[in-house]
Amino acid sequence: MATKIAVIGPADFMHNITLLAEQIKNVEIVPYIYSQPEESDSITRNLKPCDVVFYSGGLPYYFSAGARKRLTIPSLYMEQDEMMIAVSLLSVVHNKKIPLEHLSVDVLDACFFSNVLKNIGAPEAKHHVIDFVSMLPADFDIRKIVQFHQDLYESGQTKMALTSIYSVYDKLVELGVPAQRMIDPSKALIRGLLEAKAEAEMMKKHAATIAVCHMSLKYSDPKVESLAKSIQASVQRRGDSAVSLFCTRGDIENIINTHGFRLFLQSWEGHAAIGFGYGETVSDAEEHAIIAQRFADHEKTSCAYILTEMKELYGPYPDDVKFQSLVNVHPELVKLAKAIKISPANLSKIIQFSQNRQTHHFTAADLSAYMQVTRRSAERMIKKLVDHGSIKVVGEEMTYTQGRPRSLYELDIPVYNYGKESP
């Protein structure tokens, strides 16, 4: 079944990405075209069913922040990076013969522009650059960016504007200011779509994780039976006053924040304590559900807790949800994580991953599957560990299909020195 990607962006962007999407198997583009990036919020609120949302850039992504909080599917955007800026600058210099110091440029973050100049060894000179990340979302005004380019051109300081914003380009053309849009490299667009597809597939896999609900309530009560039906759960009774429901993570997360579940908790006389557990196996999920219920037992009101397969505890639902990790974090691990520039939680998971494997060698795909993150996210973490010297490349693994062999890695830190998970 094709992954349905809702793409939100201007018409020209939509044309390019729709053509490139034909190169990717099992992807369906659902276009949502705007004239101004501010429209992305209302578009997001009115999306029809899809698997993932992909925004044309940082602007529509930031402007839709309020609407995105209500999404139950992944959302990501086409990131502006050094490659996009470098390709665009090369196009201007090569095709228009305009030196960089005679160009006005707007970018999301000026550090990307600076990095490009530094990497190519460009001589220090006065460059006309404005960034707008600090303006988002409340202080953003397209007129300020248009005025920036127009003033520089009319004063003779620049000969052309290079803009990241389609509506700014249209306005500059209308004002008679020579302008060019930033180029979205085909490779970057394809990579963005592949990442959106991977996020959607990961979300579906995530939703299919085994889940168990443990509660000390009588199944004979019609309210329990109704809850079981609402989450499509199979039921196992545990004596006269306890019951376990078996379902999936997706079923739990679809109901946990609903008004119906709140009414279910409020409908009991006395204290209803419910624990939800996720796990790679049924026994793991059951164990986590029992632990989660113990936390709910300690609350003074009816509530629920969730304990994930990564020992991440969320609760109490529905009113005061907080997060805590039930994994002991060793002080030396925190220090190491800071040096590597990844979170202690992620480093702890990587160490657990290494301890649980039968072999010391692994691929980015192995780590991605264990941590339930995209392949690209796993590769980023691995790169940071390799750069720090905490992971070494030990070989390659043939894929038996077309494409390059996959690198084999081995963790190169004292994994047995950081304590064990709490029970």
Work out the count of structural domains.
4
- With strands numbered from the N-terminus, the spatial order across the biggest sheet is 10-11-9-12-13-14-15
**Tally of individual helices:** 17
Question: What is the CATH topology assignment of the largest domain?
Answer: Alpha-Beta Plaits
- Look at the helices and sheets and give the structural class: alpha/beta
N-end to C-end Cα span: 40 Å
The fraction of residues in strands falls at 15-25%
Weakly predicted, low-confidence segments: 419-423
List how many beta strands DSSP finds: 18
- Bin the helical content: 40-55%
How confident overall, as mean pLDDT? 89
Highest-level CATH class of the largest domain? Alpha Beta
Question: What CATH architecture label of the largest domain applies?
Answer: 2-Layer Sandwich
Shape: globular
Biggest beta-sheet profile = 7 strands, mixed
Radius of gyration: 26 Å
Organism: Siminovitchia fordii
Protein name: Transcriptional regulator
Which characteristics define this entry?
single chain, 423 residues, alpha/beta, Rossmann fold, Alpha-Beta Plaits, 4 domains, seven-stranded mixed β-sheet, four-stranded parallel β-sheet, 17 helices, 43% helix, globular, Transcriptional regulator, WH-like_DNA-bd_sf
Describe the structure.
By secondary structure, the protein is of the alpha/beta class. It has 4 domains: 3-78 and 186-205, 3-Layer(aba) Sandwich (Rossmann fold), CATH 3.40.50.2300; 82-181, Rossmann fold (3-Layer(aba) Sandwich), CATH 3.40.50; 208-325, 2-Layer Sandwich (Alpha-Beta Plaits); 331-417, Winged helix-like DNA-binding domain superfamily/Winged helix DNA-binding domain (Arc Repressor Mutant, subunit A), CATH 1.10.10. Helix content is 43%, strand content 21%. It contains 17 helices and 18 strands. The strands form 4 sheets. A 7-stranded mixed sheet has the order 10-11-9-12-13-14-15. Strands 2-1-3-4 form a 4-stranded parallel sheet. Helix 7 packs across helix 8 (166-175). It is globular. The two termini are 40 Å apart. Mean pLDDT is 89; it is low at 419-423.
